[in-house]
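ok so for the tutorial part 2 we go from a plain amino acid sequence to predicted structure tokens. step 1 is just haveing the sequence, like this:
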Amino acid sequence: MFDVMMYDGGVYRSKELYEAIEDSGGVILQEVKSAQMLSVVMSIPREDREYLSKVCTEIGGQVKNVPLAGTEIAVVGCTLGRHHMPHPICDIAEEIREYGGISVVMGLARGRGKTTSQISLYEKSILEEYDAVVFMLGNFQHCVEFKKHLFENINVPVLLVCGPQPEGIEDSCEAIISGVGRKAERMKSADERKKLEEIGSTISKIIEQKKEILDEDPLFIHPAELKQLLEMYEPIDMSLRPAPIVLHLDGLRVKIPYEKHKSYFDNLVVYGHKLSDIAKISESKISDSSTIIRIKTQSEVESR
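step 2 — the prediction. this is what the tokens look like for a chain of 304 residues:
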């Protein structure tokens, strides 16, 4: 049994942490460096958790539980304009990172206006690349209820965050959290911090439900194992983009273009199978920036 935990601290003496992870047979799921600060999300054997926690403390860092580790979540506002992209969206994205997930903030191209707001099939296809989506709407109940078409029929779990409590749209998303809405300042008070914790815990429950569904028919290979194989490919290893490989619940986002590296991806051998036989590989809908790998389940591979 493996546990997921996060080291949050300085770069200084981080070599000792990496050596401890390797000695315990653990895997680094995510690594983010910012100036002299370092965050490392790791999957380690449960019996070594106490040992790794001691190492993290000795080198001056903190250990955190990270229920959203190995996920990428989109936080969506109606537009990127300051009227629709208030400070709480940034606070929500930061809270997701505190829980161990990768968060991406987006705005719709035509989300402005109660009766003119739209979301295209292309935008929905982009959102469906993520493990879950957080939609943030505004402060008017009738406007929130009218805009439910923005998050309907998206094939990933959706959490709606808004000001007033809407009525009659509960079936359009997995959960609704009211009491946030648009405001031109950060969420700093005790009540606002509790609201952010509620958002984080609700997303965690949604992700846990998705994990339980996946456990009914497990993936052929765990995304973390595939990540280790891909890291040996030089264009990925040399990539200067932050987190060149991002874990998803059912696969990975690899931040190199698929068409340019198609031969490598399709023919990579994984447990005696070509990657193209055990996973669905496609170009990201966001330009040609990334490759999306969706790992097939064991039953899907065996039924070939």
